[in-house]
Write a structure and sequence with these properties.
The protein has one domain: Glutaredoxin. A 5-stranded mixed beta sheet has the order 1-3-2-4-5, with helices on both faces. Helix 3 packs parallel to helix 5. It has 8 helices and 5 strands, in the order αββαβαααααββα. 52% of the residues lie in helices and 9% in strands. By secondary structure, the protein is of the alpha+beta class. It starts with a helix and ends in an 11-residue tail after the last helix. The longest helix is centred in the first third of the chain and has 30 residues. Bound molecules: 2-acetamido-2-deoxy-beta-D-glucopyranose (2 copies). The site of one 2-acetamido-2-deoxy-beta-D-glucopyranose has 3 residues, from loops. The site of one 2-acetamido-2-deoxy-beta-D-glucopyranose has 9 residues, from helix 6. Keywords: Signal. InterPro entries: Thioredoxin-like_sf.
Length: 237
């Protein structure tokens, strides 16, 4: 009896061991996706970046009210500077915003399907953000939230892509990609949104980033300090 029990146990153990290694390999495989093949984030306007281009990195959460309020003045400033400024938005879905990760995944999916729909969707999330707050979705199941957000996101793409947006939530790749955004933000030490880096340095918490004139007061001096690129201008710190 005992022998038979242990002999039937052996294949079970073997199966368990195999599945354990399979899971482990899957985990290692996803860990190996770092660094990602492409720099993380959504580029606001594609244009060449030179050593003198001012780089703004914005860390935003699509369901964060402060991120929403910070977007119009930043956008206005970036539009004003044109190719002198390069803006990339990184997502940091905050754990205390229940639907931040699903909303971020929707942005990742839409970005993969139609790059030009990314910012329209971000702005739509900002505009109708209240629908996705914790209190408003309290009684919804996780599955209904995912389907609600997936269908919401289809608004920014053509009919031909709508079903791909919805099925994007069943694709593990879109989950992994959204995780990379989170990991990137965390790796930069960002723990709240909105957070801004200019030329690689974090801006101190200030009111400057809440208005267009504030952004002008940050960027204008940098452009002045770079001097006229046609002159030989050595700038010593
Ligand atoms: C959630 O359900 C409770 C109990 O039925 C109800 O009192 C509450 O108003 C509901 N909240 C929302 C946002 O629907
Ligand atoms: C891509 O997105 C843009 C902006 O929302 C939209 O105008 C265009 O129709 C979309 N194209 C497709 C194929 O979804």
């Amino acid at each position: 009896m005992a022998t038979r029990a242990s002999s039937s146990l052996a294949p079970t153990l073997l199966l368990w061991a195999l599945s354990f290694f399979a899971v482990r390999r899957a985990l290692i495989a996803s860990a190996q996706s770092l660094p990602p093949p492409k720099y993380d984030g959504f580029v606001y306007a594609e244009h060449p970046v030179y050593s003198g281009t001012i780089v703004i990195e914005a860390f935003l959460d699509p369901v964060c009210p402060d991120s929403r309020d910070s977007w119009p003045p930043l956008k206005q400033a970036v539009d004003y500077y044109g190719p002198r400024v390069w803006l990339v938005v990184h997502l940091l879905p905050l754990p205390y915003h229940d639907n931040a990760y699903v909303a971020s995944r929707a942005l990742t999916i839409v970005n993969m399907l139609n790059t030009s729909a990314t910012f329209p969707l971000l702005e739509l999330f900002f505009k109708e953000q209240v629908k996705f707050y914790n209190a408003q979705t309290l009684n919804m199941s996780k599955a209904s939230v995912v389907s609600y957000i997936a269908n919401f996101a289809t608004q920014v793409v053509a009919d031909s892509l709508k079903s791909a947006v919805v099925s994007g939530f069943e694709n593990t790749l879109t989950d992994l990609k959204t995780r990379v955004s989170f990991k990137y933000s965390a790796s930069r030490g960002v723990f709240g949104t909105p957070t801004f880096f200019v030329n690689g340095f974090s801006l101190p918490d200030s009111d400057s980033t809440t208005s267009y004139s504030g952004w002008r007061s940050i960027i204008d001096p940098l452009i002045t300090a770079q001097g006229d690129p046609r002159e030989e201008n050595f700038y010593f710190l």
